[in-house]
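Illustration 12: Rieske domain-containing protein.
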Amino acid sequence: MDALKVSSFTSLHIPTATTPDKTLFTRLKFLNFHQLSPLPSSIFSTTHKSRSSKPSKFYTTLSSSSTVSTENTDPDLETATPDEKFEWFSQWYPVMPVCDLDKRVPHAKKILGIDVVVWWDRNESAWTVFDDTCPHRLAPLSQGRIDQWGRLQCVYHGWCFSGSGDCKFIPQAPPDGPPVHTFKKACVGVYPTTVQHDIVWFWPSTDPHYKDIIMMKKPPYIPELEDPSFTKLMGNRDIPYGYDVLVENLMDPAHVPYAHHGIMQIRKPDVKLDREGGRPLEMSIKKFDVNGFIGKHEWGSGKFIAPCVYYSYSEPVVDQGNESASSGGNEKKLPKQQRMALIFICVPVSPGNSRLIWTFPRNFGVWIDKIVPRWMFHVGQNLILDSDLYLLHIEERKIKDVGPTNWQKACFVPTKSDAYVVGFRRWLNKYSGGEINWGGKFSATLPPTPPREQLLDRYWSHVVNCKSCNFAYKTLNALEVVLQFISIVSIGIVAATKQNVMSSIMRTTLVLTAVVCFASSRWLTHFIYKNFHYHDYNHAFR
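Figure caption equivalent — predicted structure in token form:
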């Protein structure tokens, strides 16, 4: 399984624009969150227009200074004007990848503090997102079923609803009585819903005014996710720390050699200063406004599209004439169209909780994804998420203690490697007062820290929400039972058969079969628990 975690492609050497004599990669591994292939700088776009912003000292500080200032050099960066406030409830939010939704059942999700239920309306052939509350007695509709007419049924009293939110049937109402099911109070709140890039998105308002919001504003568009030449396996996981900590962690490549030591391959520095291979990183912010920011790092660029999307890509120096990339005089043949991106979609769930949807589209090595099951990739990717999960969970509580708006005063961030993180925190401070707007649903407190085994749990945070991993989990558990059964039957046959009836060779074979099957079942038990339930991570022994 270790080989599956770090499945790799053939070596790919790509120089960067700033250091053409050095290669970007030693080897490209598509499980690694921080290694990239070339992508055009215009890969992504949003349909809403960004407000123009006047260049400030902030850009100059991050772009030209040798360090990132830990103090606020421009008071205006921390003071939002009314027309620059980020509207959290006027954005599209991802619910789940379509590949992990079952059309036969309703699914409960919490997004931006809102409890919703997403289900397949087969009458309209569309995914629909409702308020997860039955108007009768407030029971969760996500615990219901889809009836034989394709309606969402509340299993508490049997009320049924169409995809438009209208109540179609109340079993307790007399057929010859008033049509109470047509009353407005019998309807369910319906959220505007769309499917883009094989992800279900919803607009967090049931106000009819926003019914056709998709005509005016759409989710961020990612061309590679619509290109059939790209592979785009997706994954998702519920994370027991907040949205802001999740976003800044994904923007921080400097932590990779240390927090993920031994499970992610990194570029080796020219001069290795320690065992892990950490080194200075050139990072800066180039554009910054209410809709996010664009940054530049030594191996490419990064973009934060508020509030959910962060992606990173590289731009190699390619000889357009002979389609080769030059690296210190050595030419490596490289197809001009070979591209890859790392796309992270971060969903605010509630204080202290978030959800990550990830996909790494690429147009090379596509055959690998066709023969390797998705769950095998997720084993390695979950290990990466686990390796710094506890650190970030505790870090979030310390940030809460000092106050999110005081983050930059409490944290010492003197190097350029923290430029994106500083940029995100300043964006959050400038346009949202340092915190997410939960619409008054929550207090300022974080949920208590659960036991470590519960905090790092994979089953409820990922397996039950992933079709591939859920299928693998059930299959491997069934295989475990089969192996135990074969072991018991083999021993039973040997014990019940007289010695002169069965040859010694047959008896030995059955005994060996029993031993091998029993040992295999025990190994499988350990494998299932470690990869689908709980895998502890001790940095001291890495």
